[in-house]
Each structure stands twice: as structure tokens, then as C-alpha cells.
């Protein structure tokens, strides 16, 4: 557990980077408890963290992808059909502890490799929602039954979401640059070429440059919006709005959660405080799921790689799933706590 915490802090959450910007802005005279301080730290920390993760993940997925033509990948995946393929995609998401923004480059790599669109979306939904570390933290803060219930519901949303997107045949609504293999992987005759290790490294670097060039502005806009909300909307206001006597608390929790950008680790302390304030379990789970799966920065980034109809379908399916989870757990939450 100590080794995992160190690895998570150093390489996934990059707490050292957040601490650096806290020290920097304090040194520059910005008041530590001010909304401006929290907004600035959030913005610079998350922008740099996202670009680091984007670059590393795009390079790794591109390097691996260079070994597999779309035809070869499709042949492997052809062994699994329908809901089983979506289940594999969702389960794969559980072992990748990335936030929603960081999951998008893997989504791009999977799509370029020829994976069915529904499978990639099952991964995209489950990856930020559920991971091994979050299960342990949920069990610590709440209990094992709540953690298990959260994992199961997250996987169900991911599997059903990907399955519906497959049934709606929405492959055509992915941007062309995502679906098309890079010219570096093709010969002059349009056939897949044999690549050396140097070719694969160059291909990975080229993919990093290409994707970063296409999404950098969206990253800045999305994280900027998240930083403003993070710095200037107090937690006390959220707790007041999401009280247990409000029948619309699940809807409000979902709407409040969407503009906030954070991974599940950032939402857990808020979730714990909300539970202590008397907010229903379903309302808290809806808030957590909205923050991690439907954060506004990730939607802004996803808009760059999919067309509006697919984006709206994705958001609609996940939103309905989150709302159902919220109301069901508010009704039967007493069975878990």
C-alpha cells in the first residue's frame, strides 16, 4: 500500500507539482487561502499534469499500436462479440487509474488501432470512474459494500453505454484524423510497412505532436473553466444545495459535478464531507461520477475528436445512468451504510 501510494503521488497525481506551485505563488505574495491562489495552483498544476500525461500516454499507445495494423487488431477482437467485447473494454478501464482527460489519448490510440467504437467508449467511461486505488479508498472512507456497489454500477454504466453506442452505429461520428492511420505507418503503395525501433519512436513522437497540436487550446480553455469553479465556488454552498430534503439533489449534484475537473481521488474528500453533512449516498455517488466521467474539460477535449451527435449521445447515456444510480442508491442506500 505504501509503495502504491508513493507511485500514485509521484507519477499519477503528481503531488510534488502541486506543492511546487503552492510554494511558488506563496513566494510571489498570493494569499494562501484566497480563491485566486487556489485557482492559479489548480490551473498551472492541471495544465502541466495533463500535458505530461497526454504526451507519455500518446507516445506509449502509439508505440504499441505501431506493432498492430487495424486488421490484426480487429482479428484479435473478433473473438469477442457484443456485450462481451464491451465488458472487456470496461474491465480494461478499471486497471488504468487515469482521469477523464488522460483517458482520451488512449481512446484515440484504441480507435486508430481499429477497435469498435462501442468498446472504446466502454473503456472511456470506466477508466476515470473505477480503478483499484479508488476501490481501496472508498472502502476506507465508507465501507467495502459501498466500494463494491460503486464499482459494479460504474462498470454497468460503461458496458451499457458502449453497447448502446455500438447499436446506434456511431462510428461515422468520429473525426477522420482519429480513425486514419498515420502516413508514417504506410508505404508509398498504401500498405503497412515494417518499422524499426527508431521508426516506432519517431512515429510515437510524431503522434504526440499531432494530437497536442489539435487539442492544446481545448485543454487550456477546459482547465481554465475548471480552475475558476474550483477557486471561487465554496464547498459550503455545494453542501447547502445538496441537502437530503431536496428531491432534486441528484440532478443538482450531477449538474454541479460536471463543470468540476478532478479525478476520483480529488472527489473523495468532498464525498466524505457530504455524507457527514447528511447528503444521501446516491447524491454523493452521482456527484462523484459526474466529476470523474463528465467533467467539462474532458467534454471540451472529447469534442475535438468526435462529432457533435456522438458527443451528445455519450453525454446523454452517461447522464441518464448517473441519475438512475443516484435515485436508486438514495432509495436503498440504507442497505450499504
* Class derived from helix and strand content: mainly alpha
Which whole number gives the mean pLDDT? Answer: 76
Strand elements, count? 0
What proportion of the residues is helical, as a percent range? over 70%
Order of helices and strands: HHHHHHHHHHHHHHHHH
Domain count: 1
Describe the main β-sheet briefly: none
Q: Which of globular, elongated, flat, extended, rod-shaped describes the shape?
A: globular
Query: What is the percentage of strand-forming residues?
Result: under 5%
Poorly predicted runs are 184-191
Q: What is the number of helices? A: 17
- Termini gap: 25 Å
Q: Using only CA atoms, what is the Rg?
A: 20 Å
Question: What would you note in describing this structure?
Answer:
This protein is mainly alpha-helical and 337 residues long. The chain has one domain (2-335). Helix content is 74%, strand content 0%. It is built from 17 helices and no strands. α5 (82-94) packs across α9, α7 packs across α15 and α8 (132-141) crosses α9. Residues 184-191 have low confidence and may be disordered. Belongs to the UPF0718 family. This is Permease. The chain crosses the membrane at residues 42-64, 84-108, 114-138, 145-168, 215-233, 245-262, 274-299, 311-336. It is found in: Cell membrane. It comes from Paracholeplasma manati.
Put the structure in a nutshell.
Keywords: Cell membrane, Membrane, Transmembrane, Transmembrane helix. With 337 residues, this protein is mainly α. The chain has helices at residues 2-12, 15-27, 35-65, 70-77, 82-94, 100-112, 117-129, 132-141, 144-167, 176-179, 197-232, 235-241, 249-257, 264-276, 281-293, 296-303, 308-332.
Amino acid at each position: 500500500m505504501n509503495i502504491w501510494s508513493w507511485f500514485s503521488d509521484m507519477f499519477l497525481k503528481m503531488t510534488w507539482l502541486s506543492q511546487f506551485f503552492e510554494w511558488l505563488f506563496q513566494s510571489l505574495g498570493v494569499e494562501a487561502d484566497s480563491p485566486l491562489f487556489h485557482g492559479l495552483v489548480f490551473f498551472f498544476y492541471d495544465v502541466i499534469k495533463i500535458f505530461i500525461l497526454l504526451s507519455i500516454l500518446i507516445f506509449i499507445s502509439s508505440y504499441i499500436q505501431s506493432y498492430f495494423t487495424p486488421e490484426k487488431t480487429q482479428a484479435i477482437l473478433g473473438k469477442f462479440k457484443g456485450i462481451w467485447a464491451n465488458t472487456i473494454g470496461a474491465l480494461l478501464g478499471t486497471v488504468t487509474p487515469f482521469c477523464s482527460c488522460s483517458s482520451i489519448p488512449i481512446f484515440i490510440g484504441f480507435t486508430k488501432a481499429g477497435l469498435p467504437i462501442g468498446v472504446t467508449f466502454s473503456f472511456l467511461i470506466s477508466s476515470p470512474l473505477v480503478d483499484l486505488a479508488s476501490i481501496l479508498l472508498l472502502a476506507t472512507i465508507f465501507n467495502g459494500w459501498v466500494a463494491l456497489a460503486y464499482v459494479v454500477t460504474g462498470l454497468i454504466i460503461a458496458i451499457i453505454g458502449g453497447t448502446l453506442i455500438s447499436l446506434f452505429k456511431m462510428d461515422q461520428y468520429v473525426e477522420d484524423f482519429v480513425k486514419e492511420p498515420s502516413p508514417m505507418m504506410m508505404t508509398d503503395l498504401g500498405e503497412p510497412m515494417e518499422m524499426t525501433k527508431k521508426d516506432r519512436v519517431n512515429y510515437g513522437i510524431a503522434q504526440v505532436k499531432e494530437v497536442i497540436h489539435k487539442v492544446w487550446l481545448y485543454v487550456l480553455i477546459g482547465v481554465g473553466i475548471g480552475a475558476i469553479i474550483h477557486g471561487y465556488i465554496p464547498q459550503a454552498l455545494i453542501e447547502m444545495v445538496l441537502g437530503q430534503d431536496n428531491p432534486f439533489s441528484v440532478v443538482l449534484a450531477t449538474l454541479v459535478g460536471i463543470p468540476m475537473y478532478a479525478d476520483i481521488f480529488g472527489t473523495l474528500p468532498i464525498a466524505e464531507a457530504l455524507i457527514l453533512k447528511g447528503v444521501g449516498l446516491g447524491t454523493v455517488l452521482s456527484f462523484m461520477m459526474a466529476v470523474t466521467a463528465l467533467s467539462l474539460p474532458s467534454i471540451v477535449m472529447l469534442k475535438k475528436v468526435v462529432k457533435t451527435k456522438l458527443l451528445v449521445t455519450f453525454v446523454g447515456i452517461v447522464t441518464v445512468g448517473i441519475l438512475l444510480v443516484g435515485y436508486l442508491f438514495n432509495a436503498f442506500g440504507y442497505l450499504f451504510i
